[in-house]
Write a structure and sequence with these properties.
This protein has 302 residues and is mainly alpha-helical. It is 70% helix and 0% strand. The protein is built from 12 helices and no strands.
Length: 302
């Protein structure tokens, strides 16, 4: 008795089916047009910014510039005139005092606060973190007016301590925001090992934590320095005639009463831009922007 050979459906499907070739994905025309539009707008924006800076820089060195592509002559005397007219020596000294004081105080207060938030779990931690970050999330003018009113009531308005306190309010949360990821990525077992070997809190902080936190402290210090130099609203509302920082003095030089040569004002603007850019480049040399938002994943504990 012979048996007819039958072919199962699975065998038939395996023998007849061929691997389907995946079609190459092509970028749609709309996507290319959108990318080109974004690139074009960014290029247009950067070109306009570069032309405005070039215009200010050119006018700060021009003897006369009216209705022509280039000035009729060149001179650097406007920088000397701006230095004398706007008392830039005193302004830069006040700016240096305010910036250094804010950087030192924000580091001394912000690093321990960041360490507490990174290492301790306690009731109301999220609420406290939100309160710390509140000055960074709302415009400075929102709390600047009540702050200025309080400064006047305490007779701190127009004084150097008042300007330092006003600039410290947004700088301190910024230090906490920057330092918390740096502290979280440090293995707590290192601190436990140091305590096991008899290191006290200060010795452990000095010999174990400080070398590991040095990049974060440097990053926070440089970025706070740049932010403080550029902080206008709070400084403007609390500074006096003798406690103006460079950005506030620049504002008064433009809008104060009296006739001033536009070349000297532009020379002062170039001084402000150069000072800010120098510190910004130094900050970017030591700090990567991704360090501000990156967090190291927690290592599994065995």
């Amino acid at each position: 008795m012979t048996h007819a050979s039958t072919t199962t459906p699975m065998a038939t499907s395996q023998s007849t089916s061929k691997p389907a070739s995946s079609p190459k994905r092509r970028t749609p025309w709309a996507s290319r047009a959108w990318s080109g539009l974004v690139v074009g707008l960014m290029t247009f924006f950067l070109i306009n910014v570069a032309l405005m800076i070039a215009s200010v820089a050119t006018n700060s060195m021009a003897t006369r510039w009216l209705g022509t592509w280039l000035p009729s002559g060149w001179t650097l005397s406007w920088y000397g005139a701006a230095w004398q007219e706007f008392q830039l020596g005193d302004v830069l000294l006040v700016t240096l005092e305010v910036v250094l004081s804010v950087v030192v105080l924000s580091i001394l207060i912000g690093v321990p606060a960041a360490y507490t938030l990174a290492r301790r779990e306690f009731r109301g931690k999220k609420l406290l973190t939100g309160l710390f970050l509140l000055p960074l999330m709302i415009p400075p003018i929102t709390y600047g007016i009540p702050l200025a009113t309080l400064m006047y009531e305490l007779h701190l308005a127009g004084t150097l301590p008042g300007v330092i306190i006003a600039n410290l309010l947004p700088a301190l949360p910024f230090v906490i925001l920057v330092m918390t990821p740096f502290i979280e990525q440090i293995d707590p077992n290192l601190e436990s090992a140091a305590k096991v070997f008899g290191a006290r809190t200060f010795a452990m902080f000095r010999h174990v934590l400080m070398p590991l936190l040095a990049p974060g402290i440097l990053a926070a210090s440089l970025l706070v320095l740049v932010r403080t130099i550029a902080m206008f609203e709070l400084t403007f509302m609390t500074a006096g005639s003798d406690t103006q920082t460079l950005v506030v003095a620049l504002y008064y030089s433009v809008f104060a009463a009296g006739v001033r040569a536009s070349q000297s004002i532009d020379a002062m603007a170039m001084v402000y831009m150069v000072v800010t850019l120098i510190w910004l480049l130094i900050a970017m040399r030591f700090v990567s922007p991704t360090q501000l938002v990156s967090r190291v994943k927690e290592q599994p504990q065995h």
